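Customer ticket, subject: "Can you confirm the structure for PepSY domain-containing protein?"

Message body: Hello, I'm evaluating your service for our small team and ran a test protein. I'd like someone to confirm that this is what the system normally returns, since I don't have a reference to compare against.
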Amino acid sequence: MKRGSKIKHQAYHSSGIIAASMLLLSLAFAQPLHAGPFAKPERTTQAQEAKLKVRSGDEAARLVKQAYGGKVLRVQSVKVNGNPGYRVKLLQDSGRIVYVSVDARSGRLQAN
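Agent reply: Thanks for trying us out. I re-ran your input and got the following:
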């Protein structure tokens, strides 16, 4: 290999490494294009919260306990049919674990 072509080869190789590094860095700091099914719910504004029938995880737990009985094990903030809501994990008196979705906007409960 001639000396001039060796230098040219090294220059192309170095620029390829730099380009690949820049691509990897840009991907590392990029935001996802979509949130996916387990995205954290967006924070609601005060005006939006005023329209909600269920305003807290404690209230969701109370409603589910009234409707299904048993012991509330966990409450998570989630989206329910595109609305803010809660997912309540419940241990029924029979020993069965039930998950109940609570739509905060409508107050509707749905066992899964």
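A couple of notes from the result: The mean pLDDT is 79. DSSP finds three helices and four strands in the chain. Feel free to reply with more questions.
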